[in-house]
# Entry
Amino acid sequence: MKIVYFHGFASSGASGTVQLLRQMLPEIEIVAPDIPVDPQEALPFLKNLCHAEQPDLIIGTSMGGMYAQQMRGFKRICVNPALNMSKLSKVLKTGEHQFLNRRKDNQKTFRITRDIIQHFNQMERLQFKDITDEERQICWGLFGINDATVNTYDLFRKHYPQATRFEGEHRLNEKVLRKTVLPLVKAILQMP
# Structure
């Protein structure tokens, strides 16, 4: 079994969530790439990665949840998906930023430009295009009740019926992973 994990904004494939998933699911290979900052680069990169890896499941958190939602043809869980990144002015603002976790290329900082914000906006306008009835059945959304960063439950629900709220905030912790995410992962992986 294989899971591909998409991290959130300013994070990396070496995030604490990835480490916890590897500890909690030792029998499953967890592939966790560093996602490029610009969505014009990130979206094709992630689509190519998923087609090469052929994961049994994709899990994405926050920005990674927004990208996971767009991986048509794969079973996926979108946790607190930031479906409106370009409107998150507290998060996505121009200037130099620090990565929160170590990246494979050892980059410590990144720059957000107006062009990158515009690229997010353009992608967001097309992100729900071509959703079929079959797609609606293989995409799940998990939404923290106390998420003060992203609130896209209603938007997600307009496109996908499988949306659940959980007791938690925007960032995942071990308790939420054990109580909410892992049971759904195990149920999905047992599906035909």
The chain has a mean pLDDT of 96. The chain has seven helices and eight strands. Strands lie at 2-6, 29-31, 57-61, 76-79, 95-98, 109-112, 139-144, 163-166.
